[in-house]
């Protein structure tokens, strides 16, 4: 199980990312994903790299893998990896053949593209 936290959690009317970490650890989740609810604002425009690094470190300290998404592209992939992200999601969601939304994958655990 992977729980999702939104960097723009107030706008999304969701739990704060730090709270999602606690819930995920308590629920026995394998990991957490920090994403953006507002797809018009990339992750690193909402949260500083330092804040994201702290969230990743807290996820790891709780025994969780940490994934990042939210409009990441180009040099932001290297930044996400340097901050310690275990998985970096990229690209826009697309509909699968059965009509469900999903991400394109290229077989890499580190980047779901």
Calculate Rg over CA atoms. Answer: 13 Å
Overall mean pLDDT stands at 85
Provide the spatial order of strands within the biggest beta sheet.
1-2-3-4-7
Largest sheet: 5 strands, parallel
Uncertain runs with pLDDT below 50, 5 residues or more?
94-113
Query: What is the H-and-E element order?
Result: EHHEHHEHEEEE
Write the layout of secondary structure elements.
Layout lengths: L1 E5 L2 H4 L4 H11 L3 E5 L7 H4 L2 H13 L3 E4 L6 H8 L4 E3 L4 E2 L5 E2 L8 E2 L1
Parallel strand pairs: 1-2, 2-3, 3-4, 4-7
Antiparallel strand pairs: 5-6
Outline the structure in words.
- There is one protein chain.
- With 113 residues, the protein is α/β, with parallel strands linked by helices.
- The chain has a single domain (2-112), classed as Rossmann fold.
- The chain has 5 helices and 7 strands.
- The protein has helices at 9-12, 17-27, 43-46, 49-61, 75-82; strands spanning 2-6, 31-35, 65-68, 87-89, 94-95, 101-102, 111-112.
- The strands form 2 sheets. It has a 5-stranded parallel sheet with strand order 1-2-3-4-7. A two-stranded antiparallel sheet has the order 5-6.
- Strand 3 (65-68), helix 5 (75-82) and strand 4 (87-89) form a beta-alpha-beta unit.
């Amino acid at each position: 199980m992977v729980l999702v936290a939104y960097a723009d959690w107030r706008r999304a009317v969701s739990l704060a990312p730090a709270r999602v970490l606690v819930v995920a650890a308590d629920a026995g989740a394998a990991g957490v994903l920090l994403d953006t609810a507002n797809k018009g604002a990339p992750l690193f425009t909402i949260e500083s790299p330092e804040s994201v690094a702290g969230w990743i470190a807290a996820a790891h300290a709780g025994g969780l893998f940490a994934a990042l998404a939210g409009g990441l592209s180009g040099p932001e992939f290297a930044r996400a990896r340097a901050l310690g992200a275990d998985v970096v999601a990229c690209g826009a969601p697309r509909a699968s053949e059965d009509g469900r939304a999903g991400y394109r994958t290229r077989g890499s655990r580190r980047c779901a593209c």
